[in-house]
Model the fold of this input.
Amino acid sequence: MTDLARLPDSDSTPAPQPDGPLATIGTQRLLPVIVLHDAADALPLVRALKRAGSTCAEVTFRTPAAAEAVRAIAQDSDITLGAGTVLTVDQVDLAVGAGAQYVVTPGFSPHVVRACQERGVPVVPGVATATELQMALDAGLELVKFFPAGTAGGAAHLKALSAPFPMVRFIPTGGISATNVVDYLAHPAVFAVGGSWMVSPALVAAQDFDEITRRTAEALSIIRSAGDRDPSETRSTR
Ligand code: 3PG
Done:
């Protein structure tokens, strides 16, 4: 479970970071979100991600192939692997049994969050409102997914939503691409960005793993460049 200390008052003090698998996501600042219809595509896809230098991924439980895909990846790859779109306690058990190291949910489910906490599995619930964010805080969670980021108001909404909650870190996901990712990265409360644009189901269906590698490398390069910017420029967006 994520165990973040409260943020001190000063904006200049670095934010506390989670440990375990979530730390890998925070270091990379990019979480590729994978939808697989055929578990046979799992390993070629993860190898394509790794060729680009990616150290983490999320497989969504919105297809019947998800558990088998997680199992295949967990057995043959050292990539830090999570399960996304986890909606039920049964799916928590399925995902963790298959080898998922953390769980991501699109909304806030007290049942799913509690099940993860009882099993000692890090969980990142989705929020789009202050009410949902307070539910996450009540559950002891200070790292959340902001979803669906694009249609819930984008980076401007994230900025407004984060203002009363300086201790919270976000993984905005939904509608993010190479063209708008820097808008999110500019905000200091953004822990990482999630998205499928570099691993789209269309690319997987076309078996275009070279393009997946290219897009992932491009995304990581954009993120590194954003991180190289003047920190005072980043703080001013808050
Ligand atoms: C998710 O499941 O986290 C999102 O649907 C990913 O959103 P995207 O496909 O717009 O990147």
Q: What stands out?
A: The beta strands are 30-34, 56-60, 80-84, 102-104, 123-124, 126-127, 143-146, 169-172, 193-195. The CA atoms of residues 48 and 213 lie 5 Å apart.
